[in-house]
Amino acid sequence: MKRFCKIALFISLLICPRLGAAQDTASFGVLVTSLSTTSTGAVSGTSFALPGLSAAIVTWQVTYTGAPNPVSVKLEASLDNTTWFTVGTSTVITGDLQTTIHLAVKFIRISQVSKTGAGTTTGTLVAQHSLSLVPLTAGFNNGTVSLPSIFSATTPTSGFYFPTSSSIGSTVPISFNAILFSNLGTPTNGTILYCSDCAIANPCTGSSTGAFAKRLNDVWVCN
What we know:
Blueprint: H1 2-20, E1 32-37, E2 48-49, E3 56-64, E4 71-78, E5 85-90, E6 96-103, E7 107-115, E8 121-129, E9 150-151, E10 159-161, E11 169-170, E12 178-179, E13 192-195, E14 211-216, E15 219-222
Parallel strand pairs: 12-13
Antiparallel strand pairs: 1-8, 2-7, 3-6, 3-8, 4-5, 4-7, 9-10, 10-11, 13-14, 14-15
C-alpha cells in the first residue's frame, strides 16, 4: 500500500507542472495583465482564452511609466491562438483606455508594436458578457377580430390578426408614410406606396394631389 501511494505521489508531481502551464483564461469580470515590457521593439503579450459560448465586451488599458514618443500598441484576437489579427490600436503617449464590443473570438492579447523612450509598457484587460448575436424568432396565435394577436398595450382589442395561415387582417386603420414621385425608385414588383404628389394615372405621374402607387410589371400604376 505504501509503495502504491509513493507511485501515485510521483505521478502527481509529474502531472502538476503540466497543469500549471495550461492556457490562461480571462474570466468575465477579472482584470488580467497581458503585457508588461521595458523593450522598445515589438513584443507579443500573453494570450488569454475568453470564456466559451458567448460573445464578449473587452475593455483594455495601456499605461506607461516613462514618456514614450511615439508609441504603438494593439489589441489582437485569434481563433486558434496562432494566427492573430488586430482589432484595436493605440498611439496615445499618455496611456489609453478602449472598449471593443461583440468580440466573438477564442483568444485575446495586448501587444506592443514599437516604442521610443524608456519605461515600462503595461497592458491590462477585462472581459464582460456581451449580448448574444443570435437572431430571435417569435410566433403568434391566429387571434380574432375582437382579440387580435398583435396589439398595442393600451388598446388590446385593436390590432392585427390572422384569418388564415396565409393572410393578415387589421382592426385599425393602416397609415403609409408619404413619398414623392421623384423618390419612387425601382423596387421589386408588388411594392405599394403612398405618393403624396402623384396623379391617378397609368403609369404614375407627378405634380398632383396624391395616389397609391403600385409597382406592377416594372411600371408604377397610381389609383
